[in-house]
Amino acid sequence: MLTEEERAEAIWTYCIAREKVLKRLVEKNIMPQYLADTLSERMLEQLNVNDIPGFRRSSVGEAMIAKRIQIAFPDNTYMSLTEIARQKDTEVPSYVIQSWLRNYGTIEFLRLWEKESNPKFVDEECTALIERMKSSSFTLTLKQWIANTGAVGITSKQGKNGGTFAHPDIACEFSMWIDPAYRLDVVKKFRMASIEK
């Protein structure tokens, strides 16, 4: 019998692998986007996520962890921003992530997320970083963000299987920044969910 954590890991692994396969099929023109979207939704419906403690269906139709974990999450719940960034730059995805961090709206989003999810977040340091960002010669790095503010929503790993990883909320925001079509899809699904309520 799998533990709750093992079941959660299995679901996340399945969802991420499924989306990668469908994305590749669309990129290679083997399958149209609308069919990939339909298959994605139908495959998710086949999962009995209601029987898995801690999971619920979100407004954008993905399996998400329902409870908010306050300080740190197991590494397997993070999503790879590096892989998402490869959509824009296959050679150097880290530049895409760094460009995203230069955006004031990104820092405000991260600040709100950290204040809600991380009691050890140092908001005063975040304010100081925002002030420094006003200078055209300053570039905020992920390492600075984590070290100065005590942020836990994004992490970076070096070496094999390394990259930049983030909580699914943050990964979704990053995906919306990279892909306007994805952003529009999220907005439409949010509107539909609001109407259904």
UniProtKB/TrEMBL annotation:
Please, which domain of life does this record's source organism belong to? Bacteria
Q: Where is the KilA-N domain?
A: 59-193
Which InterPro entries does the annotation name? KilA/APSES_HTH (IPR018004), KilA_N (IPR017880)
User: What name is this protein filed under?
Assistant: KilA domain protein
Species name for this entry?
A: Desulfofarcimen acetoxidans (strain ATCC 49208 / DSM 771 / KCTC 5769 / VKM B-1644 / 5575)
